Amino acid sequence: MNQIYGLAPALEALRARRRKIHKILIASGAHQSRLNELVETARRAGVAIEKRDRRELDELTRHANHQGVVALVAPLGQKSAYVEAGAILDSMGAPPLVVLLDGVEDPHNLGAILRTCECAGVDGVFIPEHRAAGLSETVAKTSAGAVEYIRVARVTNLVPLIGELKDRGLWVVGVEGGTANLYSDFDLKVPLAVVLGGEGKGVRRLVREKCDAVVSIPMRGKINSLNVSVAAGIVLFEVVRQRLKE
User: Fold this and answer.
1) CATH number at residue 66
2) Residues 32 and 139 in one domain
3) Do residues 110 and 39 both lie within one domain?
4) Are residues 179 and 111 in the same domain?
5) What is the DSSP code (8-state) at residue 54?
6) What average pLDDT does the segment 128-151 reach?
7) Is the pLDDT confidence value at 195 over 80?
8) Is the pLDDT of residue 210 over 70?
9) Whole-prediction pTM
10) Exposed, middle or buried, 149 (CB in 10 Å: 0-12/13-18/19+)?
């Protein structure tokens, strides 16, 4: 049995009802008013709540920052946690907005990106099956519950997927440092697939060559790159800004 720890992730897991929650453990002495919404949501969902000594929760989570809340749940990393790529492609919004992650290996980065994607209204996220982080409880915690809502598909190869996205009328735009094209100058109101590279290597050459355009975020300091999750937030909310102006 797996666990979700933290108030917000546990609450969003209850609301989403995407996977079975066996029970929720709450630290004895936890501030009751802060937990009222969690307790009421669990009651409506028919999920039992048990009080446990905080030290027991510390041991259970290996001293993670659980905030006095641990939900015991069905594993997230199983195949059922993902959706088929076609399920995302066939139900995109108007205009579509999807994200392709080319080898993001840090689960904390993946969780932060999924949180940003959910907040920005992204239709779905595509990740490679190999040499990339997958859905896990660390991702769930970092995403603050967004993983319960955002649709994630694993694909064998991003290159054929890019071809299919183009066939469906999407512009495929990579985000990479060192280009003259600024992300804020690009028309992001079009049907769009945003490609973000992994830590260190960035967008791989074969994937970059398949992009319709590659844009950069201007750097003004001595460090010439941003964390991929920060870059995702900057670009995706520029998409939101431009589309809200229409």
Assistant:
1) 3.30.1330.30
2) no
3) no
4) yes
5) H
6) 89
7) yes
8) yes
9) 0.80
10) middle
